[in-house]
Structures are given as C-alpha cells and as structure tokens.
C-alpha cells in the first residue's frame, strides 16, 4: 500500500557480468545464487554426457536479454563458444586416456 515498488523476477539473460551470453548470470540472478555455482553446474553437466552444453545453448536461444547492460559482440560469443567446445573435447580426451 505504500510507495514501495515490488520488483518482478524475470528469467532472462543478463549482459552485465556476462562472460559469454549471460545465461549463467541470468540464472544466478533469478535464483539468487552465486554465478560461479551456476557455471560450475553447467561445466559439470557438460562433462557428464554433454547435457550442460545442450541446456546452455537452448537457454541462449530461448531466453530474452535484459533491457540494460552492455552488448556482447557476436565475434566474442563465437570465440568463447569455439574455445569452450575445444576445451570440452580436450577434457573428454584426457578423461578417456586417464580412466578409459
């Protein structure tokens, strides 16, 4: 009843603090957890069958961007994705050579 404005939580990608496209930052902000925890979960799920990478890409495609913050260039996004995929391939190869 006062002048306090209740903020509505929205699940969206957040540009501010984003490393790639803001998926982890948006999830962390929505659920009120540290962004590092969300990133660790994505990496772990990616290493265990690749589900994290698939989930990340789906969220990237379907979550809208917030309306504020700085823009991430497409070249930067592609660079990070390529580096992430190459890193994942290297990690899987190392895992297989050590434990396979």
Walk me through this protein's architecture.
The longest helix is centred in the last third of the chain and has 26 residues, at 74-99. Helix 1 (23-31) packs across helix 2. This protein has 100 residues and is mostly helical. The chain has four helices and no strands. It has one domain (23-99).
Low-confidence stretches: 1-6
Tally of helical runs: 4
Q: Main beta sheet, described?
A: none
Approximately how much helix is present in the residues?
Answer: 55-70%
User: Nearest-angstrom radius of gyration?
Assistant: 16 Å
DSSP E strands, number: 0
Shape descriptor reads globular
Q: Which class do the helix and strand fractions yield?
A: mainly alpha
Can you describe this structure in just a few lines?
The protein is mainly alpha-helical and 100 residues long.
Structural features:
100 residues; mainly alpha; 4 helices; 0% strand; globular
Layout of helices and strands, plus pairs?
Elements: H1 23-31, H2 35-47, H3 51-62, H4 74-99
